[in-house]
Fold these 4 entries.
Entry 1:
Amino acid sequence: MSDATQQQSEISPARDYSLTGASSRHAEEVGLAAAEWYHSDVPRKTMKAMMKRRDGPALRDTAIWIALHILFAAGGIYFWGSWIAVPFWLAYGVMYGSASDSRWHECGHGTPFRTRWMNDVVYHIASFQLIRNPVNWRWSHARHHTDTLIVGRDPEIAWMHPINLFLKALAFVGFVDTWISFKTLARNALGILSDDERIYIPETEWPKAAFWARVHLALFALTALAVLLMLANGMGWKSAIPILLIGGPRVYGCWHMVLTALLQHGGLPEDVTDHRLNSRTLYMNPISRWIYWNMNYHIEHHMFPMVPYYALPALHDEIKHDLPAPNTSIWDGYKEMMGAVMKQRRDPSHAVRKTLPPTAKPYNEFLHKHVPDRSDAG
């Protein structure tokens, strides 16, 4: 054990976040697994209208997304060798390494487009950009929604105890995550699934997981081959262009994805069954909202995951009387989250306890059994 790991272990005890250990058994024993979750009341007719999928908004936003890829890449290549190229590559990185996350997420739910194959195409493109096996992550995210922040059940908990702030900071430049993703693809390509993957991925899907891992690795191999051929033809530093176009942006362009994703559940309590308690809704600037596809309305999304991203602002207006007050900005969200995170490093049971407005329904009885009545205030 390294000195840093030992020091972190002394700060707070480690929890078993695997899907095969004691935490998983505990969740099943106390009724946290696949539990009945709280939902705000929405009239049936209103919800039906909000759940209606349309091709138009997603086609528009996807066309803009693709056009910006092309525009920024063209600028980066045209101005190659000049400092003018740098902002083009940085912007391209955000389109590739950050905006792809929200497209992957929403198209994985099948909600942006009415036409199913359009969802599937964008989902697979975004999965490749993020170096995610499209089969594994589809089922992983389904489990995340079924058991959000339930320890031993949710495979996508970002803030695991003991919290390692160095790794969290390092995630804004995706070297570690990219390396882990490549190792996972290589393992899957050999037909090997982890114990956790075997739990949330149906056995009938295992061959597909291996197939798509091989497809992705083959595409990355072609990218590497392009670099070698350009080097062999004496193209010097221009040989880096294929990596800047494919694969590399997952490293240098992921910062906005990390910036927003950490806010979704950070500092909020585990092992509760009310999304008002364990998810965070916040307001943010229109550019970030477009990149993020309105996932800043995260309580609303978790309560009603089949509502398309373009209907989430209306859903927010419909149920905000039943929700905690949103954080006013990304900065405000980070102040709240990091204040709680710093306390959690020594007391993992600490969490932000969101205050509901007088018009909201109270937390259900199940929550009072599992959530300590703590607050970050003071």
Note: The chain is about 55% helix and 0% strand.
Entry 2:
Amino acid sequence: MYKTRATTTFVLPGILFSVTLLLSACAATPENGSAETAASGTSETQAAARESRNALEQRSSAEAEPEIRESAPERYVVKKGDTLWDISAMFLQDPWYWPEIWLVNPEIENPHLIYPGDVLSIHYVDGQPRIMVDGGPRVRPTHRLSPEARVVERDEDISPISTLQSFMFRPQVLDEETLENAPYVLASQDERVIFGPGDRVYVRNAEDTEQYELYHIVRHDGMLIDPDTGEELGVATLPVGEAEIIEPGNVARADIRKGEREAIRGDRLVPYAEEQDRLFDISRAPAGAEGTIISLFDAISQIGQLQAAIINRGERDGIENGQVFAAFTAGREVRDPISDRANDVVTLPEEEVGTVMVFQTFEKVSYVLVTEAERTLREGDKVRAP
């Protein structure tokens, strides 16, 4: 028996955890296949394959070759629940090099997807290692996955979606004036101080809104300051939920439709924004690029793997979604217990402790996800091109 479920699928070639969702989706077989549906995407997928091959060839010729692990298997059979990041780490010293070594098999309809049962192996082309899918044409489900929301039929027993998707929240960095002038939650119909989905709330300063207009509910999380220049980079906000204006006015009525955390009095309503395009490849940050972690998302003093932070570099600095940085802990200052000099303080060297990946950019800052961490990261830690 199948049930209909709306799922947002992100096609992120070579990106951490993205394939868990894709593998899970493709392992399910629709009840009624359609040859016409499969045929309709043939030309598009072939074009995508050609484009991917060209991009990879150009990137590989321009940059140093990644290093294959000595322990890399000669053949590996993809299992349900595998992630591309895990598979990449099995073959490569640095998993983010995957797009540079992945060789698209022209027989494969969609070069960005790997399926349970596929056999991956290392081949050498012009003396350089490449990883590709062996074997003949694979059986495909008749529905096609794309980076937009589609309703597809899934077996109820399909495993949970990708871990990465849960971190694809919609952060917003706003200027202080915009946030201060935005409508805000005033109260509810009763005396409660926290509100959630299904609650009717009253909103102040919403005269210019329209009936049934959707808003993001956000909470002020502090001004972001560049530690190097002192420049104000914008106000970070916490995503709270979504609200719909039912009756505009100086004291408007609104219904909370969705909640990521409890709404409280004073939370702001900002215009609903479409999610930033998630169709991006993983890549190294530009040579020489570096920045500083200036804020931790939803954390007090430290974060670890699969948690998010904000760095003081954004679109104006050439930062793009999918770029990977190496993370370094800032060297602590310690007193030398042996030195004869009074107050002899030594700054310890920085230590590389993991990697972070950009997943949401703004003009002056970017949100990054910790993909690997040997130790926790804190505000003030550095990120640099690997």
Note: The first helix runs from residue 18 to 27.
Entry 3:
Amino acid sequence: MRKSTRCLAAATLALTLASASQSQAVTVTMACGTVGMELQMCKDGAARWAKKTGNTVNIFESPNLTNDRLGLYKQQLAAKSSDIDVYQLDIVWPGQLAQHFVNLKTKVPAAEVNAHFKGIIAANTVDNQLMALPWFTDAGLLYYRTDLLAKYGYKSAPKTWAELATMAKKIQDGEQKTNKAFTGFVFQGKNYEGLVCDAMEWIVSHGGGTVVDASGKVTINNAKAAKALDTAASWIRTISPAGVTTYGEEEARGIFQAGNAAFMRNWPYAWALGQGDDSKIKGKIGVAPLPSGGAGNAATLGGWNLGVSKYSKNQDAAISLVRYLTGPEEQKIRAIEGAYNPTIVSLYKDKDVLAKNPFFGSLYSVFTSAVARPSGPTKTKYNQVSQAMANAVTDVLTGKKKGQAAVAKLSADITRIKGRAW
């Protein structure tokens, strides 16, 4: 984006904030997540907006797990409750919740909207209406212990899942001689949305398709998808503990950050925490693309966005808060302090951001080409599809089914959910 356009957008936002501060002060309630540094950074950003405008922000602490959060949101919105003005929305939710949110397309200048990645804006657009503004984006990454790779003779991160398994086993066996709690690889194995994200990466990287393709066709029942799930199951009790099937993001991070794992699949937020003063592995962490299963690397697109409830009694102030928090100033702060990936293109060339998060530049293509979950083609039925997928993958990881039986049943389940059409 040209500098003049950025300046115009910033000036417009400044005028909006000034206008908000001149009107009667109101209280806005915002729902924020609590994973890692998320809650504190949400509070800090909201406080900065409140100071600029003279308004007050109450923070509603949402559940950690995305499934629990969505269930709570649906209850609030179905009741047309005005208790929450601003919602933090997962990238896969706009199609499910669109009828409950203000169309920001007519409320936010085009220059502000166009500063964000086009693909993320598209994901937040339903029937040509902009349901939310992007706050931060995500893509799955492989974290590894640089010191342990060197100790055991490895010069770089694994390029394939097979290499990861070999390296993780060698390091695990060596470290367990002095640390029985040590494990090779941790990831999000609990039956919830996080497992769907991990499974998408396994399946796509093996060439198994995207579960449901862009046309709405169910594609999961194939040998490559089955192999991907069987491969993941082979990690359990060999390079991953049996308990990994109960891990969410924070459980995996806790083990890795305590120095008890060689590799971890997680989101970018784990970087800043791993480099914190209280981390046992500060300065010993590397980040790389997730390995390939033979069909290239795949990282699931994640990320969160901010939308304004149609039932809010303070919509103007709520929109002002959303515009401020998703603007370049706040996104830069969040990138530097919390390793949250910006959705504003220009920040990936910002020297301050890259100094704190060097992998933002080297892994830029991972973030810009991340694989979407099938929320687009499945529309309002995505939550049912996601749960069916999580159940199927859990069956394989826990040994109840082999990959081929699981993908065949999943295909039948998704076809039933689809009915005559999405």
Note: The CA atoms of residues 184 and 239 lie 5 Å apart.
Entry 4:
Amino acid sequence: MMQPWFRLKYRGILALFLVAAAPVVGAASLQFPAQWVHGMVGEPVLQVHEAAPGTWILRQSRRSHFEAPFLYLLAGEKRALLLDTGAEPQAGPPLPLRETIDRLLAEWSATRSRGPFPLIVAHTHAHKDHVFGDAQFHDRADTQVVGTKREEVAAFFGLPRWPQGEAMVDLGQRPLIIVPLPGHEPSHIAIYDAATRSLLSGDSLYPGLLTVRDWQAYRASAASLAAFVGRHDVQHVLGAHIEARSTARQLYPLETAYQPDEHVLALQASHVRELAQATARLGDFVADEVHDDFTLTRVSPPSADHPSTHGMVLFGQREVYLSHMPMFHSPHDYQLILEAELPPDVLAAWRQDAAKHPDTFYSIAPTGAWVLTEGIAEGKTFAADLFRGHFERGGARLLQNVTVTVKRLIHFRRFEAGQAPAGRWIPFGSNDESYLAHRIEGAPDMDQIVMLSGAPGGEEWAHGNGGALAAGDRVGTESVRRVIYTEFDDLKQ
């Protein structure tokens, strides 16, 4: 039985003092290879890269498993920690993890005139592509394999107030800070290594598709991690996967077996702040949230909404846009803005009518009752009637059973009052056809869409106290060219 040196109960200020005061072995900048194994024929099943003295990054080949997880081995003067043990090979030879770790630690130990090196086998989280190799270490001397349940992780590291608090593990002149990070998975953690100024973030943040299973926990974790980064020198944020291309805002499809144009592994502290800002801004989000280096997606239970009629404002001079007409009760409690396509004859008829009625807005109403969250997705089509004016308030029906194709979701979330400050606007469109939509938060509120003289820029725009805009009003360096739609009554309560 190992001594409980790893169960240090230091937290908060005391933990930070200990890390700051402790001598650090092997302090160095990390070096990364020109390319990681990415699915080429003949590549090793397990790539081993020494990023700094006592710091190894291992990657499982995509030819072994499409998840191609990254594993991290950190060694101090007295012991080492292995973070994650990989996925079960789908093809090819077994993963030679145990023999690789033993060899690396034997070489490290030899330089310190020691015998067998004690080892902790820990995990960023419990998903099966991170724990398969655990069995290889169960009979290793001086080794403890951390359990994968939340209670086991909290008990091992000394975190009785999970997910609050922090804990410290000292590898021998190499202190590590353990940060609870649930949301992707209940037992998820991050590890900060002061020696390399690196934050090992697992599946919570990496260049790829960030899957959220518990939104409230994930949002709290993102805020906690951003606060942590504000208190520590973080130069590298190292996740467990790469799923993004080197081109911004582009991901490889899931289960891609060959990724020759991968994004770099290391993100920066700015990405942690970007993630926290995005999760704070989003309400109970429904659609994917795309950023340059990562995309947020949510795993949600089937919608409990009942089928209903969902009218939308129709507008746009070159492109076609739709904005859902919301209310604060289910199933209408969604703000949705999308880019759409209409058949050429429908588009021509609408444009012709709009030219004759420049001061009138247009709306559509999908035919039949359907569930909004299931009926709206990129590439989907639905039938709708097209109206001059409001479809429920005396509008004139111009066309029936028009086929509408969802081209791109711009903004789609369920209302969650108080998650963003008042007076925020959602920009979309292009430089020569730019719009703002008022971000709706909680009753009483308003729904407004305006066209600008130019693009305001930014993901969201702050203007005034949330009051309605009028033609000619200044918004930053631009002005309101036209008010397309304004609604107060539906959002009083």
Note: Residues 312-491 form one domain.
